[in-house]
Amino acid sequence: MIKAAGIAKSFGRVRAVRGVSFAVEPGQVAGLLGPNGAGKSTTIRIITGFLPADEGTVEVAGFDTRHASLDARRSLGYLPEAAPLYPEMSVVGFLRYRARLFGIAPRDRARAIGAAMERCRVEAVRTRRIGHLSRGYRQRVGLAAALLHDPPVLVLDEPTSALDPSQVVETRELIRDLGRTRTVLVSSHVLAEVERLCSRALIIAGGTLLADGTPAELLRRHGGPARYVVEARDEGRKAEPALRAVMGVAAVREERTDGVWRRLAVEAGTDAPDLREPMAAALAGAGVAVRELSARRASLEDVFLRLMRTADPVREHAA
Amino acid sequence: MSAAGVIAGREFRSFFRLPVGWVVIALYAALTGVVFAAGTLQPGGVATMRDFFALSAWLMLPVTPAISMRLLAEEARSGTLEALVTSPVSDAHVVLGKYLGALVFLVAVLAPTLAFVATLWLVSDPRPEAGPIIAGYLSLVLLGGLYLAVGTLASALTSNQTLAFLLTFFFLVALLLASGTRLDFVPSWAQRAFYAVSIQRRVAEFAKGIVGLGDTVFFISGAACFLALAWGALESRRWR
Fold first, then answer.
1. Is B1 part of the contact surface with chain A (CB cutoff 8 Å)?
2. A276 and A293 in contact (C-beta within 8 Å)?
3. pTM to 2 decimals?
4. What span, in angstroms and rounded, lies between the C-alpha atoms of A122 and A144?
5. Which CATH number goes with the domain that contains A18?
């Protein structure tokens, strides 16, 4: 598991991370989400032991990254952002080097390298020079290197950033599969990526952890009031007052008119139950013909933007 | 194999995969070839390589910074340093591995000069003495080791290879000039200090076939000091 307790880091007068705490359990794929300059990379670098925290502690697979640094690093597979590799080496040569560096026994090396190459689909380029590979292949070689020693904890910084759409789908599937038995922390600023890949999202901005939970929990907690769309034949302008009269409706506004059809956006009040049934009844009672009545589901993007707006004063203070 | 050995092996092999490695080998072979042909290979002269070894303090000046400049600077520039120091390897092993890889490559750079020894052996009568030649080569390795340690420190201080090259080159030039020239304008204690760290004086002793314990310890401990500083420079990211 990964356990960060109150980690803080400053660079001169800039406080990059301020008291961030979270724990990611085995079997979880957690997404560290935030805008550029939010403190994601610094948090990742503290977890991987590249940078020490000024305050707080980090445990990786039960090892304190400060006091049992080598044990923590042995338990960790890390793919840094943009997968930096040695361009003059061949793919298999690089993986052999990493296997030796991680102390994989000679008798197990060929099997470990073969398995990592197969999982990341790089066998076809095994003898090619890394410098001659596309960015997508380089990314996958970096991922293969992170998996070589079969670590219980994986930290992947923007793992799909250079991949084409089919490779993105394959890599997501691979990460999801790895996350069944391992602790996986994925850093990303792509909201859709985290929504599709992660069982848990950690939203960070201004060096502060703003939200932590499953995407469903975050939507419930930070998604804001429920919204509905109604499209009705409303020549008599009866739909709007009928909807306003429904208990729990906070606001109704017209989105557009298309001939006799009006499209209305309905916002529910906080803690209102599902209003589709009472709204349908109210519209039927008012004699309004309805061709659409649907709930508009909030996305992680809505949550993210809402949290960023809330965090703005913090970010301005940090700057 | 220890982690330092694994890193050294990768570093050594990488020199042969990059143009810079072959350029360094060619440059050193060309430089020493000129010195050997012009200074040593003289008809009727004494069969000795003393001048060749005595000049090596200067001949190695452009070569060793070219080897050491990329050791850590390139890792920092390309981002591979992050993957390296987050693997289960101590920073001391990273520095030591990089240095040893460069040192073994330096031995490979020196290898073609054995052709000069063979030539001298074939064409001279009486044959040259083996002792001063062996001592001379030992001095080249010790001297190169010291220069490379200075270069490793410079490479740990910056992510710019050119800057690392220039820092090493000018530091070594300054050291050679200060310790090899009589500087009347400096206080006597400073003159004594410069004499104590004189590189040319020590290399000249080796070239005569005299392997002094003090001189050997000087080169090894000097290299160790610079490597310790390089280790400190790499570790400094933790408290910067």
1. yes
2. yes
3. 0.84
4. 8
5. 3.40.50.300
Same domain, A19 and A35: yes
Query: Total structural domains in chain B?
Result: 1
Q: Between chains, do A74 and B89 touch, taking CB under 8 Å as contact?
A: no
Q: In which domain, by residue range, is A236 found? A: 225-296
Q: What is the CATH number of the domain that holds A285?
A: 3.30.70.1710
Domain extent, residue B144, equals 3-238
Q: Which of A194, A221, A248 is the last residue of a domain?
A: A221
How many domains in chain A? 2
Residues A208 and A233 in one domain: no
Q: How far apart are CA A192 and CA B41, in angstroms?
A: 74
Contact A86 B237 (CB under 8 A): no
Give how far B79 is from chain A: nearest CA, Å.
Answer: 5
One domain, residues A198 and A251:
no
Q: Which B residues in the span 54-113 are in contact with A, Cβ-Cβ below 8 Å?
A: 78-80, 82-90
* Helix (H) / strand (E) containing A264: strand A261-268
Helix (H) or strand (E) holding A24: strand A14-24
Distance CA(A27)–CA(B182), nearest Å, equals: 71
pLDDT tens digit at each of 240 positions of chain B: 689 999 999 999 999 999 999 999 999 999 899 888 887 777 777 767 878 888 887 889 999 999 999 999 999 999 999 999 999 999 999 999 999 999 999 999 999 999 998 988 888 877 888 888 898 899 999 999 999 999 999 999 999 999 999 999 999 998 888 877 776 777 778 778 877 888 888 888 887 888 889 999 999 999 999 999 999 999 987 666
Which of the listed residues A221, A245, A261 is the one where a domain comes to its end? A221
For residues A154 and A169, give the distance between their C-alpha atoms in angstroms, rounded to a whole number: 19
CB–CB contacts below 8 A, A to B: 63
